[in-house]
Design brief:
The chain is of the alpha/beta class. Helices cover about 50% and strands about 10% of the residues.
């Protein structure tokens, strides 16, 4: 495996699948489907949401300082002739923890897809792309109006001040502002530089157009759709689906106005 950065190559002879999103978008449902299929390995050190914990400390340390580059939507420079940076060295350490288990678990499945699920991977997409030029990035998006009123505002708490200029507006407005900026930055970067290595799944499509969404996902991953479809019965709307529709119309209008570009871009009318 070749890398653009000064990194030791991963010993498995393929590039990873990385699943990212803004928090609460539905990545757990997709990860569970992929794991149940038996064709995708997403690590073994998980939290209950199936986030791979091998990279948690790496994310905690490096996302804040990397955000300006993420939002710039620019390719990282070719650093193959430079010495390794701190972010590269730290990622290598995290990758070794993952690799120790991954090598043993997927060696008997030559065609398996390997990778990890971590919503915050979204914020490091240009870095991961520079490390693994052939990686596949699965971007999960959920209606920003629902996300604005979610109780899961961890990313806003962690990265809001670094991502959203307007700190005086309501939490829901700041939340959809982060949702818009983060998802647009990832999608626009990936569509510009990654082409067929990028796939976006809308949570609502997974719920209401399940077969088509799974078939498209399987085609992207190069695995059999039937292996995923046989586990689709567990895909049902979250109890919080459509929560934005119960909000005060005046407040909702401000939220929708603040996230209008992102809502339009991802097809939420």
């Amino acid at each position: 495996m070749s890398t653009h950065l000064h990194m030791q190559p991963f010993s498995i002879n393929s590039a990873p699948l990385i699943i990212g999103a803004t928090g609460g978008s539905g990545t757990r449902a997709i990860a569970q489907l992929l794991l149940n299929s038996g064709q995708v390995y997403l690590g073994s050190n998980h939290n209950p949401a199936l986030d791979c914990l091998d990279f948690k400390s790496f994310y905690d340390k490096h996302i804040p300082s990397f955000l300006p580059h993420f939002y710039s939507q620019k390719l990282l420079p070719n650093a193959s002739e430079l010495g390794p940076s701190e972010i590269e060295t730290d990622f290598q350490k995290s990758l070794k923890h993952y690799e120790q288990d991954a090598r043993e678990n997927i060696s008997s499945q030559a065609n398996s897809v390997w990778g990890w699920k971590g919503p915050r991977s979204l914020f490091l997409l240009p870095f991961f792309h520079s490390v693994f030029p052939d990686l596949k990035f699965l971007h999960v998006v959920r209606d920003g109006r629902d996300m604005a009123y979610s109780t899961n505002q961890n990313q806003l708490r962690l990265y809001g001040e670094l991502s959203v200029a307007e700190q005086c507006c309501s939490q829901a407005e700041r939340s959809i502002a982060l949702w818009e900026r983060a998802n647009l930055s990832a999608s626009e970067y990936a569509n510009k530089y990654m082409s067929s290595q990028y796939h976006c799944v809308k949570y609502e499509d997974l719920i209401f157009q399940t077969d088509k969404t799974i078939n498209d996902l399987a085609n992207f991953l190069g695995i059999a759709a039937d292996d995923i479809l046989q586990h689709k019965d567990g895909i049902t709307p979250s109890p919080t689906y459509g929560r934005w529709q119960t909000q005060c119309q005046q407040n909702l209008k401000s939220v929708v106005n603040r996230g209008s570009r992102g809502l339009y871009y991802f097809g939420y009318r």
